[in-house]
Amino acid sequence: MNKDLYKYEKELWLNGYENVAGCDEAGRGPLYGPVVCASVILPHDFVLEGLDDSKKLSEKKRNLYYPIIIKKALAVGISIVSAKEIDEINIYEASRKGMLRAIKSMNIKPDYIITDAMPLEGFTNIPCKSIIKGDAKSITIAAASVIAKVTRDRIMYSEDKKHPEYLFAKHKGYPTKKHIELLNKYGIIDGYRLTYAPVKKYIDKHK
Question: What domains appear along the chain, each with residue ranges and CATH number?
Fold first, then answer.
């Protein structure tokens, strides 16, 4: 295990912050579906060999780690922010709001919050720190990234069953060439982010 992944947590534990919550989100870029935010508090003796930023892990590894994190974590919070809400307040604010909701939903109130590049100062009275590429630098944020990603992927598999023609299981709502072709072929359904450029382009074209 890369011991550097515990650097931020160890510093905070030494300074008396017992319950450190790591937060991350999945799904800022897709044209379709929600953004999913997760918050995780890990025990001080937590070890999970190979855990890293969810984007660096295979889907098989993420699915393997997900139940282990759920079981071993002291607390896990998940928040799902809909496409409609993303359109209303923009993806950045939706991600921040989702993280705050995920933190509030946990059964333990954290002493300190660390996030993957999302400043929460001024939005919570809990001390916090935003870390650039935090999901690759902190074990707690990495754990949150896996929870968020697996949760969102499961939502997209469910959407795929409802709308198989859009191939959501394949591209997960991201703006791939194939997805944009399918969007132009089948049109907009509930769940698309209407403020995102390829979707706006479709709307403008079909006015």
Answer: 3-205 (3.30.420.10)
